Amino acid sequence: MNFHQEPNTFVGQVNLKVQSLERSLAFYQEVIGFKVLKQSSTSAELTADGKTTLLTIEQPEQVVSKQPRTTGLYHFALLLPDRSDLANIVRHFVELDIQIGAADHLVSEALYLSDPDGNGIEIYTDRNPGVWDWNNGIVAMTTDPLDFPELMTNETGKWSGLPAGTIMGHIHLHVADLAKAEQFYTKGLGFEVVNRFGPQALFISTGKYHHHIGLNTWAGVGAPTPPANSTGLESYAIVFPTEAERQRIIAQLKEIGEAVQEEKGHFVTMDPSGNRIQLQV
């Protein structure tokens, strides 16, 4: 099953603020393997398939580096089509001497690194959903060591950039209050909780995916929102299957007291921790 198309609701695009467009473009093309779809003097749209924007980077005026222990991006996660792609990019990172983290989450195998501004990036492949362990609506996930020797038996050749089938698999956010975030994302946006990591993190999805969005208070309960000209998350897009579903969710958000505004042809809302969300179809 494809968890990132109708009838599911999912994350489609992430928009970042960076200190140097030139530096970030070099990183995202040469290290991660994006292609540039559009570019101006202060921003760029990045793609894997040459058609679909997955990531935008923008250099704001008077940009400042992000302060620690604030809300915003923990990481965005690029989902590769095959394990061989994950093995190939491991070799690519080794050849570039890029420091990475890694984990086996039972549902997926993941690599972790940061861009030059400290924005977190996960690159992963899913295990077959048939082996995911569900119990009373909760999917089993953990953080075990990744078996690199076994993974590398899937290596098929030199890394040549992100495969065309790469998508934005999920986003993971720092929030100030987990209970308020849960209410907003479940009662407002209509996601379901599929895993809890103690009192500090939860994972939500539609269509029984292991998670489209992760939420945590690891930056501190009550963490402040970063300044508007800070590097980090500008916004991210949630994609609804139909216009009718988007309108239903907009009405639902308003019912629980959340604001939805129209900006430059986009419907935009903000979670209780100040994370901006575009509501797309």
Describe the protein's architecture and organization.
Pfam families: Glyoxalase. InterPro entries: Glyas_Bleomycin-R_OHBP_Dase, Glyas_Fos-R_dOase_dom, Glyoxalase_1_CS, VOC_core. It comes from Paenibacillus agilis. Keywords: Metal-binding. This is VOC family protein. It is a single chain. The chain is α+β, with helices and mostly antiparallel strands. It has one domain: Roll (2,3-Dihydroxybiphenyl 1,2-Dioxygenase, domain 1), CATH 3.10.180. It contains five helices and 18 strands. The strands form three sheets. The protein has an eight-stranded mixed sheet with strand order 2-3-4-1-15-18-17-16, covered by helices on one side. It has an eight-stranded mixed sheet with strand order 6-7-8-5-11-14-13-12. The longest helix has 14 residues. The two termini are 20 Å apart. The model has no long low-confidence stretch (mean pLDDT 97).
